[in-house]
Amino acid sequence: MKRVLLVVMIVLFVCAGIVCDADEIKGRVTAIDVAAGTIDISGVKISVKNADIVDRFDAPITLTALVAGDYLEVEGSFTGAGQMMAMDVEKSFSKQGEIKGRVESVDEGGKKLVISGITVEIQPNAVIEGHDDALITIDKFAAGNYVECKGNWSGPSKFSASKVELD
């Protein structure tokens, strides 16, 4: 009985870690391909074939209910440079952009991070936080870190961050 309980606890901790590290992107839809089951947010191609899609009030909708210009919050996994497989898609009231994912590379001098082929430019006045909301500098980031960036999309696969948090 104790072994079963231990196995269940390990599985729950592992699953909780996976859920916590879900990649995320928020932004304005720039293109939709219903036949392919994809949407684009500022140059990031997102497959929504197996995703749950809901409106702002959590009511289920289909891909055909989305239009270019809608703001979405997408949770899933980055699958390559500028590509994502969505698990959950929600229309958003917020117009602020966001990206969460693992850092591929850091350019300290240029104040840039790359996350799944997306260049994140950290603005000069950006708030950069480490664990426990402590202020840090970009030199604390490394490839493999999981980060959350808030700001605005500035072009295809380009994001301008006003806040960066190290998770």
Detailed description of the structure:
This protein is mainly beta. The protein folds into two domains: 23-95, Copper binding periplasmic protein CusF (OB fold (Dihydrolipoamide Acetyltransferase, E2P), Beta Barrel); 98-166, Nucleic acid-binding proteins (OB fold (Dihydrolipoamide Acetyltransferase, E2P)), CATH 2.40.50. It has one helix at residues 2-20; strands at residues 23-33, 38-41, 44-47, 52-54, 71-80, 83-91, 97-102, 105-107, 112-115, 118-129, 146-155, 158-166. A five-stranded mixed barrel has the order 1-2-3-6-5. A hairpin with a 2-residue loop joins β9 (112-115) and β10. The longest helix is centred in the first third of the chain and has 19 residues, at 2-20.
Secondary-structure map with pairings?
Elements: H1 2-20, E1 23-33, E2 38-41, E3 44-47, E4 52-54, E5 71-80, E6 83-91, E7 97-102, E8 105-107, E9 112-115, E10 118-129, E11 146-155, E12 158-166
Parallel strand pairs: 3-6, 4-6, 10-12
Antiparallel strand pairs: 1-2, 1-5, 1-7, 2-3, 5-6, 7-11, 8-9, 9-10, 11-12
